[in-house]
Model the fold of this input.
Amino acid sequence: MTTLAALFADTSALDRQPAHVRYAPHARARKVAVMDDSSTDDAQLMLDYASGNARAFELLYARHRSGLYRYLMRHARDPDLANDLFQDVWGRVIANRSRYEPRAKFQTFLFTLAHNCFIDHCRRTAARPRGESIDSTDTEDSLAAPDELRPDIELERADDTARYRAALASLPAEQRDVFLLHEESLLSVEEIAKVVGVGAETAKSRLRYAVNKLKRALTPVASELR
Done:
């Protein structure tokens, strides 16, 4: 049975750029070259971009597009909506470049924009998204080792993944948001608290409840172990 930690870490299925990326349409082809300059921190890149350095934006996009898209996709559970939100977030990064001040990590700035974009969408629609499934965008490239192609292993993995998705979807929105930020943004709990606009203890409590509920949902019941 796949462990909880392994299941949480297995995000390769969503680690692909959205279908309608407009800001860096050839990001995948450029990925190696763009990622060469790893010594420049995000805040400096954002300041450089505000000063007119377009390559600085390419570096920021390459570093953060995957985590941002996974965060939005797991919230939206709808590829078209996730793509729209993804574009909206980067559009806000561009629109706010001249007002950016490095008072906190760039990830805090970016995921605050993402959080607000999703909340704005929910307010506009007056409901949480109702995507049926993310199966169509959650299929891994088939380069697995022979053992991983065994039908029994594939069925077990599919069952674990389905239970994880269902458990994640069942979390209260506030707990799911904090959990996804913790998984995808690389921010501390204190920084996540700033993103969602609550105290650090509240953020810690939401994360703890979310993790505990997911663990319970993903722990096989006694009858399944027989």
About this structure: Residues 1-21, 23-36, 129-153 have pLDDT under 50 and may be disordered. The two ends are 13 Å apart (CA to CA). The chain has one domain: 4-125+148-219.
